[in-house]
Write a structure and sequence with these properties.
heterodimer, A: 158 residues, Ubiquitin-like (UB roll), DNA polymerase, domain 1, 5 helices, B: 711 residues, alpha+beta, Aldehyde Oxidoreductase, domain 4, 7-stranded mixed β-sheet, 28% helix, globular
Chain lengths: 158, 711
């Protein structure tokens, strides 16, 4: 049943011998100890498990780990480079755009992917991009402010 | 200032904190869960009340680091940031030297639970009193060491200095030597007043922000112990059926899955979460039939018909003469459905037994009640049960329920392995303790001058929180009806506190009724409120919100879509104004903006308080527009975020919040008040836009359309 799956995880080559039907979410959390990617619903409706695969935001709770073979996976732990926070992380801190923080990694990964595609999104585009990322604490307004700030910083060459 | 000292007046055992220096402090302990276990503390005090021993609240390490201990937990409300701010000011130490340990039953003073917006106003005041006593003791110790009278000493930044000879000084760290302070003051010193604050009243960002944006913050589900297994528990399809038989052979065939059974309690365990998920659905089980005839629409009728007991909450004057003096009378009935808490982190717990001691890490608002429950359920003692609460991914009242932790502990006992229980989203919906459905029947009347003459308020199932009259009414009566003791429950669900429990229901009823009367009297709704108010705090809040909003008076319905509402909760006063756009063809409502003014007494961290207000307003849009748990018999139909819609980015209005400056007053609650009037302010704004009055939340497009048709 087990297969060897090779992929890039946070910039490092990884090889894992595992049941390929297991979801990427639990493999990240349980096998690699990358617990920043959260279980929120298991059915793709909340976005807490969002990671970036080949520059696209993807729900890891629905994805068999075999699907990432040969691909580049980035989790919240891999977003900062050499201890330097990603502009989106910085902007979330600057705007205090979180409360309980449980949706935060998924939000940040979704935003990071959004800004790769659309470097200066309008508020409507930001809302549309984050519509299926749920925040129960109600930090939405600050998250939108943070996205705008991050977009501005990134356009200015960081 | 001469203070007498003595031995600990309570003479109770306090957990030894020698190990604190090994640990440093802060909630890092969750990264290495076993370290603390190996160093057993002395027995816990048996009395389950908050101790008055100041040593239980704080510790001064040999390097000057101050650790504050609290049985409260952090679930996003921000007390991890604000409690150290209060400690720093009261003890006179630099804020950066203060750390915090939260929600650990072995280390922290007993606490009833993190709810009711009590952390600052209740625990915070006890903590400040403790810090004040510690400061007094340190001054006495310094007085003896420096041979300078206490009156000639000043404590600042963790150093006590002779005012007349500043070279003569000594640090707290040198005085305490990292040990527990031995002296107690017979006359407790008073806490500092606001003119002495250095840190309180300034804005601070979440201290846990960095850990949360980098994915490093540890929640219960992020912990892992050697040999740990994930458990999935077999659940019935309905809450009103019982298990007849179960065939678990299919589950046992799944690679690495193990079935555990204790009576009707059946669980599947596996080192891989996906395998436990795969195995649990392979169990075939037979259940009794669901014979309950009730659903989310018939619930109100059944609630009113059932065996209920009235209780007069408050009353004054005479209803009959009030009715006589009224030229216009109004009768309304308001309905409010069941609500789910729906935190993004589902109920989670990790349990492990080692050396006869059970340790449970749980996403809970109530570590000490959980400890009590585990002692009872597993036949253990308080000394052998420890509960630790890592970061909690949202609670809103729902994590006062602790079943997931009991399940994990039972399974850890049966299997002798560390067991992790992470409820699925479905489980979270089915086993939630919902905000209760309820009914308010309300009669009121006004005279020809628009003065309220009587108020006859009957609330069923929703309790009286938030039902305060507020307005100046000569003849009033509030009666609260609840299920008679030992009577058969109407529904099979657990109900419990949901952010500002039931104050949403009661505020909705009161503030809609006020609007109905204002409109009938032909008076602007703000003016009508001010005309009928004597409460200075509420008058100030309404004036402040009107200014923030840029309110222009107008009789409702004006067509503008502007609403007003106000309320109180946990000692805090709030007033809202909102602007909505209603699509009269679809019934869809878009909230353009909400302004909110809040009087919460002393505000410890204004930025933190604003974030809580914004959170309340946004979360309140859920019960206002969509949230309602649907069910048929004992079967919950709202099982996920596809069928139970919570607020999303596209709904979010512009928010303008203002906190009234009340530094000289005692601090009050901040986590809940601003949610209580959201339903009412939107209902009143919808009425102002359309002339359609809604009497039931959530105000779905269908209900809005139906109300518009009746205009």
């Amino acid at each position: 049943m087990e297969e060897t799956i090779r992929f890039s995880l946070n910039g490092k080559k990884q090889e894992v011998r595992i049941d390929p039907s297991q979801t990427l979410l639990w493999v990240l959390r349980n096998h690699f100890g990358l617990t920043g990617t959260k279980y929120g619903c298991g059915t793709g409706f909340c976005g807490a498990c969002t990671v970036i695969i080949n520059k696209e935001a993807v729900r890891s709770c629905m994805l068999p780990v075999s699907d990432v073979a040969g691909k580049k996976v980035v989790t919240i732990e891999g977003l900062a480079r050499k201890g330097k926070l990603h502009p989106v992380q910085k902007a979330f801190l600057e705007h205090d755009a979180l409360q309980c923080g449980f949706c935060t990694p998924g939000m940040i990964m979704t935003v990071a992917a959004l800004l790769m595609k659309s470097p200066s999104p309008s508020v409507e585009e930001i809302n549309a991009g984050l519509e299926d990322n749920l925040c129960r604490c109600g930090a939405h307004n600050r998250i939108v402010d943070a996205v705008q700030m991050a977009a501005g910083k990134m356009k200015g060459g960081k | 200032m001469k203070q007498k000292s003595s031995a600990n007046p309570e003479n109770k055992g306090i957990p030894r904190r020698d190990f604190v220096k090994l640990l440093g402090g802060g909630i890092f302990i969750f990264f290495r869960p076993w370290d603390v276990i190996n160093i057993l503390p002395e027995p816990l005090p048996q009395a389950r009340t908050l101790t008055k021993d100041y040593n239980a609240f704080l510790h001064i390490a040999a390097d000057g680091t101050v650790t504050c201990y609290t049985g409260k937990i952090e679930m996003g409300q921000g007390i991890i940031t604000s409690l150290p701010v209060m400690m720093a000011d009261e003890l006179n130490v630099p804020l950066e030297k203060v750390k915090i340990v939260m929600g650990d039953t072995d280390l922290c003073p007993w606490d009833a639970g993190t709810w009711g917006s009590q952390s600052t106003q209740s625990f915070g005041m006890s903590m400040r009193a403790a810090a004040a006593e510690a400061r007094g003791v340190l001054l006495e110790m310094a007085s003896a060491q420096l041979d300078v009278p206490v009156t000639q000493l000043e404590a600042k930044d963790g150093v006590i200095t002779d005012i007349k000879n500043p070279d003569k000084n000594i640090t707290y760290a040198r005085l305490s030597k990292g040990q527990k302070l031995e002296k107690y003051l017979d006359v407790k010193p008073s806490i500092e007043n606001h003119t002495k604050f250095t840190y309180v009243g300034k804005s601070y960002k979440h201290v846990d922000g960095h850990a949360k944006v980098t994915g490093q913050a540890k929640y219960t589900g992020d912990l892992k112990l050697p040999g740990m297994v994930f458990a999935r528990v077999l659940r019935p399809p309905s809450l009103s059926v019982k298990l007849i038989s179960a065939d678990v052979s299919g589950a046992e065939k799944i690679d690495g899955a193990k079935v555990v059974r204790d009576g009707d309690f059946i669980a599947v365990l596996s080192e891989n979460r996906d395998k436990a998920d795969e195995a649990i659905v392979k169990i075939t089980a037979e259940y009794t039939a669901d014979e309950l005839k009730i659903n989310h629409d018939t619930i109100f009728e059944q609630q009113l018909k059932s065996d209920i007991t009235p209780r007069v909450v408050r009353g004054a004057g005479d209803q009959a003469s009030g009715r006589q003096e009224s030229t216009m009378k109004f009768e309304s009935e308001y309905h409010d459905g069941f609500l789910a808490h729906a935190p993004i982190e589902t109920h989670t717990a990790l349990a492990a037994i080692e050396g006869g001691k059970l340790t449970v890490w749980a996403s809970t608002q109530t570590p000490y009640p959980l400890q009590d429950r585990l002692v009872r359920e597993l036949g253990m003692t308080l000394e052998t049960v420890r509960v630790i609460v890592p970061f909690v991914g949202g609670g809103f009242g729902g994590k006062s329920a602790i079943e997931q932790a009991v399940e994990a502990a039972k399974l850890a006992k049966i299997t002798a392995k560390p067991v992790m229980v992470v409820w699925t989203r479905e489980e979270e919906f089915i086993y939630d303790n919902f905000h209760t459905a309820g009914v308010v029947k309300l009669s009121s009347g006004i005279d020809s001058n628009g003065k309220i003459k009587f108020w006859d308020y009957h609330v069923y199932y929703s309790g009286s929180r938030g039902s305060d009259i507020i307005y100046d009414v000569p003849n009033y009566m509030t009666t609260s009806y609840s299920l008679t003791k030992n009577a058969k429950p109407v529904h099979p669900f657990a109900t419990g506190p949901w952010r500002a429990p039931n104050a949403n229901t009661n505020t909705f009823a009161r503030e809609c009724q006020i609007d109905i009367m204002a409109s009938a009297a032909g008076i602007d709704p703000l003016e009508f409120r001010l005309k009928n108010l004597k409460d200075e705090k509420m008058i100030s809040c309404l004036k402040a919100v009107a200014e923030k909003f840029g309110y222009v008076a107008g009789k409702s319905p004006s067509g503008r879509g502007i609403g007003v509402a106000c309320g109180t909760d946990t000692g805090t006063w709030i007033a809202h104004m909102a602007e909505v756009k209603v699509d009269k063809n679809t019934g869809k409502v878009k909230v353009v903006r909400i302004a909110c003014a809040q009087d919460m007494g002393l505000c410890v961290n204004p930025e933190g308080a604003l974030i809580q207000m914004e959170g309340c307003l946004n979360m309140g849009l859920g019960y206002t527009f969509t949230e309602e748990v649907k069910f048929e018999g004992g079967k919950i139909q709202s099982l996920g975020f596809d069928t139970y819609d919570i607020p999303k980015f596209s709904w979010i209005p512009k928010l303008d919040c203002v906190i009234l400056d009340r530094k000289d007053k005692a601090p009050r609650g901040g986590g809940e008040p601003a949610i209580v009037a959201v339903g009412a302010v939107i209902a009143n704004a919808i009425y102002d836009a359309t002339g359609a009055r809604l009497f039931r939340t959530p105000m779905t497009p269908e209900r809005v359309l139906e109300a518009i048709r009746k205009v």
